[in-house]
Design brief:
Elements: E1 8-9, E2 15-16, E3 19-30, E4 33-44, E5 48-52, H1 59-66, E6 74-79, E7 82-83, H2 89-94, E8 97-99, H3 112-118, H4 128-133, H5 135-155, H6 171-184, E9 189-193, H7 201-218, E10 221-225, H8 229-235, E11 238-243, E12 246-251, H9 253-257, H10 260-267
Parallel strand pairs: 5-10, 5-11, 8-9, 9-10
Antiparallel strand pairs: 1-2, 3-4, 3-6, 6-7, 11-12
Helix pairs in contact: 3-6, 5-6
The chain binds adenosine-5'-triphosphate.
Length: 272
């Protein structure tokens, strides 16, 4: 595909399209605390977009605004070219946005397979009554759901643990199962809250590869919060930098790396 006004091809051959999500002038307050101060940025179709910043900068709050957990007091969220009304998280999920959490949120007593299946719940349309009246539709849905989940299990190479209760898995694998569950919803936009937190070097390398593969092979747009700068700079197309609720940088990894304000925020340089 050629570059057009709205899309371009990256060095590694992926196509980044037009704007998928546009955040305009977002302000979020918790009582007297302004967690997000008038921040605007966009996420383009097909890109990997990182949100970085020191502790308490407002990154998780921003992810929570995107996923509908918080509705901002000011500003607008535009998704697929339309202004999004205030929504509940399940409505945002149905619109094609899935997420993982900073602290793993899986059902420990359930198998890997069953945990991943819970990611499909948003897509089950046959209600209880319909299931009784029209068994065929419910069965077809079940078969499709299983097939989709099996594809994800293959993709993330977790066949060997599909029947294992999640509570028995090591940390790195739990994180991979959480990614699988989010992918089961077939999101257009996938939000990852610190996907490498608490991982060793090898686990981080694995997770980086899976994130890149999901983006490349499934065409999923990804926004992630991550503290490991090496990983962020390696896998992201563009990076937003937050500090004390404000946006202090936005651009390619190289642009952000050389931005004096960003360098100051990370090195803690005092200003007059
Ligand atoms: N539910 C809440 N109620 C009150 N204050 C909150 C709430 N959530 C976040 N905050 C405050 O908003 C600010 C931003 O927090 P947030 O968790 O978004 O930052 P962060 O950049 O994700 O930090 P970290 O990297 O430590 O996770 C902080 O001052 C925090 O104390």
């Amino acid at each position: 595909m050629k570059d057009t006004a709205d899309s371009h091809v990256t060095e590694d051959g992926r196509t980044i399209g037009g704007t998928l999500l546009d955040l305009r002038g977002i302000t979020l307050r918790f009582g007297g605390v302004e967690a997000i101060k008038n921040i605007s940025f966009d996420i383009r179709q097909g890109e990997i977009r990182a949100i970085i910043g020191p502790n308490g900068a407002g990154k998780s709050s921003m992810l929570n605004v995107i996923s509908g957990f918080y509705n901002p007091q000011e500003g607008e969220v535009w998704f697929r070219g339309e202004k999004r009304p205030a929504m509940k998280p399940f409505q945002v999920a149905r619109s094609g946005v899935a997420r993982t959490f900073q602290n793993i949120a899986l059902f420990d007593g359930m198998s890997v397979l069953d945990n991943i299946m819970t990611g499909r719940l948003n897509d089950m349309h046959a209600g209880l009554v319909a299931q009784m009246i029209w068994k065929g539709k419910a069965e077809r849905e079940e078969v499709e759901n299983r097939a989709r989940v099996e594809r994800i299990i293959d993709f993330l190479e977790i066949q060997h643990i599909r029947k294992t209760p999640v509570g028995r898995l090591p940390y790195g694998l739990k994180k991979r199962v959480e990614l699988a569950r989010a992918l089961a919803a077939e999101p257009d936009l996938l939000l990852l809250d610190e996907p490498m937190a608490g991982m060793n070097v090898e686990e981080k390398e694995d997770m980086s590869r899976y994130i890149l593969d999901v983006n490349d092979e499934m065409g999923t747009t990804i926004a992630l919060i991550e503290h490991d700068m090496g990983v962020v700079m390696d896998i992201s197309d563009r990076v937003v930098v937050m500090d004390y609720g404000r946006k202090i940088g936005d651009g390619t990894p190289d642009e952000v790396r050389n931005n004096p304000q960003v360098i100051d925020a990370y090195l803690g340089v005092a200003h007059d």
